[in-house]
Design a protein that fits this description.
Elements: H1 5-12, H2 17-39, H3 46-55, H4 62-74, H5 80-103, E1 107-108, E2 111-112, H6 114-118, H7 120-141, H8 144-166, H9 175-200, H10 205-232, H11 235-238, H12 244-247, H13 253-261, H14 264-273, H15 281-294, H16 296-314, H17 322-336
Antiparallel strand pairs: 1-2
Helix pairs in contact: 1-17, 2-4, 2-5, 2-17, 3-7, 4-5, 4-9, 5-7, 5-8, 5-9, 7-8, 8-9, 9-10, 10-16, 13-16, 14-15, 16-17
């Protein structure tokens, strides 16, 4: 994988920033976590059972943490950021429940997906419950402008999921198609998380736009790295099976780049494995050999680095502060996961 030493060092030196962000946002995140647990409850026993199974499985909770951090950045937080952050996390978990059904995934966050324990119907319906609770938490703040941001995000995310489904195993898919998919299904929620955080913190129009742009670029970087890790990560680190994107026929950037440059024989290897639910380690190795020949994983990481830097540059106009520095370093952390 071709990657400059400077780029690798820059990403790795930011590795401690996430711990510092965790410490800085801990009081707010404690309130967010309490709200998440409270709002996951229901008199229908199966609802909290399924919801808590996914919530308790862990996850970085990066999106709600960014909401809290964005509010803190502007120094005028009024408490609504807790509702916003919890709503963002519920939206994220709802999409995970739904995605696992659509993708027929067996694993999520290192253990059996909820659909494997309770079935597809329960997973979809509990996902719907979490979405409903997310909107209720937003309504409770009385902030219609922030509710609009979250509502629009929910619509765009759904469109992104449908577009990804439509592009499954589409050998003509382009890098532009890929950008449209991940811009909708991943970057949009990051964008909404940081924008509503800025709104809760009392940001002016310029500050709100800076955090909106920061979140969007961060989301692109995050998904690009995730799509690399799907092919070369370890299952216990990923929380899902390595090569799931290949077996699910997803047209991620490494795959698109490989198909654009592969020889006819190499395309045959890829096409035979793409969307094949029975593709095993041998098929994955063959596809990775093609990826390596054209450095598609390395080129994807380079693109992630570009988005991470754009995220950092989005903050330049804001006054210097410790939180601004932390958010800038967090943008680099998204890339460091690939090493």
């Amino acid at each position: 994988m071709a990657l400059s030493a400077a780029a690798a060092n820059e990403a790795m030196t930011s590795a401690g920033a996430l711990d510092r962000l965790l410490d800085a946002t801990r009081p707010g995140m404690d309130r967010v976590n309490a709200m998440i647990l409270a709002k996951a409850s229901s008199h229908v026993d199966l609802v909290p059972e399924v919801a808590r199974y996914l919530i308790d499985a862990g996850g970085k909770r990066l999106r709600p943490m960014l909401t809290i951090a964005a509010a803190m950045l502007f120094g005028k937080a009024n408490g609504s950021e807790v509702n916003f952050a919890a709503a963002v996390e519920f939206m994220h978990n709802a999409t995970l429940l739904h995605d696992d059904v659509v993708d027929e995934s067996d694993m999520r966050r290192g253990r059996a997906a909820a659909r494997m324990k309770w079935g597809n119907q329960a997973s979809v319906l509990v996902g719907d419950f979490l979405l409903g609770q997310a909107f209720m938490m937003m309504v409770d703040t009385g902030n219609v402008a922030a509710l609009k941001v979250i509502s629009q995000a929910a619509t765009i995310i759904a469109e992104g999921e449908v577009l990804q489904l439509a592009k499954t195993r589409d050998l003509s898919a382009s890098a532009a198609d890929y950008d449209e998919v991940i811009g909708a299904k991943t970057a949009t929620l990051f964008e909404a998380a940081t924008e509503v955080g800025a709104m809760a913190g009392g940001a002016d129009a310029a500050g709100r736009e800076a955090l909106r742009h920061y979140g969007r670029e961060l989301g692109f970087a995050f998904q690009l790295v995730d799509d690399v890790l799907d092919y070369r990560g370890e299952a216990d680190t990923l929380g899902k099976n390595t090569g799931d994107d290949l077996r699910e026929g997803k047209m991620t950037l490494p795959m698109i780049l490989a198909l654009q440059e592969a020889t006819p024989a190499e395309r045959e290897i890829i096409v035979a494995a793409l969307g094949n639910v029975d593709a095993g380690a041998a098929e994955l190795r063959q596809v990775l050999a093609v990826f390596d020949r054209y450095d598609t994983l390395g080129r994807t990481i380079e693109r992630a680095i570009t988005h991470a830097r754009r995220a950092r540059e989005s903050l330049k106009q804001l006054p210097p502060s410790e939180m601004k520095s932390l958010l800038g370093e967090v943008a680099e952390i998204t890339v460091s996961r690939a090493y």
